[in-house]
Design a protein that fits this description.
Number of helices: 14
Radius of gyration: 22 Å
Largest sheet: 4 strands, antiparallel
Distance between the termini: 58 Å
Oligomer: single chain
Structural class: alpha+beta
Number of strands: 11
Helix content: 40-55%
Order of helices and strands: HHEEHHEHHHEEHHEEHEEEEHHHH
Shape: globular
């Protein structure tokens, strides 16, 4: 059965409604910009309409879910978190971090279509249909591509990056280097001196050799460091003892937010964020949660609907 016919069967749209949504999908996005950390720089967010979001989520679950994901890809996967990404590198002496420019927008409609035909063995009609439903029209750069804000972009980026991840993994195995990728963040680590110096040029050559997607390294974000200088991976500190930690500033902020909550002066939105942050901390640095429990008591966490208890 074609994907279109499956959509007619499984989605709450008539044939005419579905045809109209498919024809106009690339334009059904709310676009806005949010500031980056650097001044006067912005990130473009393009969120699809509720109808297109529903279709994209259905595609991920019903059409794309079984396509191969490389084990080094740690983002956007059930049961995985940035802690898994950081944990792979905590025991090594030296760390190299690299980053792609405009990661999602670098994956265009032809990349998606070609991947679905060549790797997922889809018919051209099905591949054309899916690619038209998951890409938006970036009018500023005049291209159809994945967007930051679409629910299908994370999974699609992971599966399309399989060949890149495989080539990099083979290279790293030969060099005895640990590699993992969290979205557009690449991390490499080893305890052998000078080995990581070779990596940037190798990665650039792999990017050039790939038929798709065409990726560009953001040289300004390439960082080489060591245990002696301090190592941070996706916001998590790799300690000299070989553990991962939130870092002092994040801990200070969490203490302050928890103090305001205990005094009843934290607004509803901040309470929701605090609850999510503390749940994440439990998975990353449980010892810090026990420190907070000793400082603030079980009742505060009970009021936050978090099932943490003081260690005996």
């Amino acid at each position: 059965m074609s994907i279109f016919n499956r959509m007619l069967t499984e989605l709450p749209y008539s044939k005419d409604e579905l045809l109209n949504l498919i024809a106009t999908a690339q334009f059904r996005y709310k676009v806005y910009k949010i500031p980056k950390r650097k001044p006067n720089q912005f990130r473009t967010i393009a969120q699809p309409s509720p109808e297109i979001k529903l279709i994209q989520r259905w595609l991920v679950k019903s059409v794309l879910a079984d396509l191969p994901l490389h084990k080094v890809a740690t983002a956007y996967r059930k049961g995985k978190s940035i802690a898994d990404h950081a944990n792979l590198h905590k025991k090594y002496q030296f760390l190299l971090k690299m980053d792609f420019k405009d990661f999602f927008p670098s994956i265009n409609v032809l990349d998606v279509r070609n991947y679905l035909i060549e790797t997922a063995n889809m018919s051209e009609d099905d591949a054309r249909l899916v690619s038209s439903l998951v890409c938006w029209k970036d009018k500023e750069k005049n291209r159809l591509c994945l967007s930051i804000g679409a629910p299908s972009s994370p999974h699609l980026s992971n599966i399309i990056m399989y060949e890149f991840d495989e080539q990099v993994s083979i290279m790293c195995k030969e060099l005895n280097v640990s590699y993992s990728r969290y979205a557009d963040d690449l991390a490499f680590s080893t305890s052998q001196k000078n080995v990581l110096e070779k990596i940037p040029n190798i990665i650039k050559n792999i990017c050039l050799a790939l038929e798709y997607p065409k990726l560009i390294i953001n040289d300004s974000k390439t960082v080489s460091t060591s245990r002696a200088k301090g190592r941070v991976v996706v916001g998590l500190v790799l300690t000299s003892e070989g553990n991962i930690s939130l870092g002092r500033e994040k801990k200070r902020q969490l203490r302050y937010e928890l103090y305001k909550f205990s005094k009843g002066v934290l607004d509803h939105e901040s309470i929701s964020k605090l609850r999510g942050d503390l749940a994440f901390v439990w998975s990353v640095e449980e010892r810090f949660i026990h420190t907070l429990l000793r400082q603030f008591g079980n009742e505060v966490f009970t009021n936050l609907e978090l099932p943490f208890q003081k260690a005996d």
